[in-house]
Amino acid sequence: CNTILMIQHEKRRFVEQVDYVTSPGWIDGPGGREREGLPGNRGPAAVVTDKGVMKFDEKTRRMYLAGYYETSSPEEIIRCTGFEIDVSRAEKMEPPEQEVIRMIREEIDPDQAFIKVPSE
After folding, report:
1. In angstroms, rounded to a whole number, what is the distance separating the alpha carbons of residues 28 and 45?
2. How far is CA 3 from CA 11, 59, 90, 95, in A?
3. Tens of pLDDT along 63-78?
């Protein structure tokens, strides 16, 4: 299936090379999944972090910064990424509406397993 990954955006998590792959993405670009015997018509759709949203280029399959939050910046995302990332398409995203925040905190993730409520 097409997946959306959620992860904290840290340089130690966004690395140039890994020793072991548990969940293959687009591997090494176009055709990478097929060469490994995986379906080429599905894979990761986006990576959502605490700093922004990354998507994958349709032709090259390389990850790029699609949007960043008002609490972040493309420069900060570059600093927190251990490989070169395209930020030329990045747009500042609107903050979520209060109803969306309420749903996440009260219905989707009330135990804060994925999204920690910031301390005031």
Report:
1. 16
2. 22, 18, 21, 23
3. 999 999 999 999 999 9
Listed residue (54, 68, 57) closest to 26, CA to CA: 57
- The DSSP secondary structure of 23-81, one letter per residue, reads S--STTSTTHHHHTTS-TT--EEEEEESSEEEEE-TTT--EEEEEE-TT--HHHHHHT-
| Of the candidates 91, 11, 94, the residue with the CA atom closest to the CA atom of residue 54 | 91
Of 53, 57, 61, 62, the residue nearest 90 (C-alpha):
53
Whether residue 86 contacts residue 54, with contact meaning beta carbons closer than 8 Å, is answered with no
pTM of the entire structure?
0.84
Contacts of 73 (CB under 8 A, 6+ apart): none
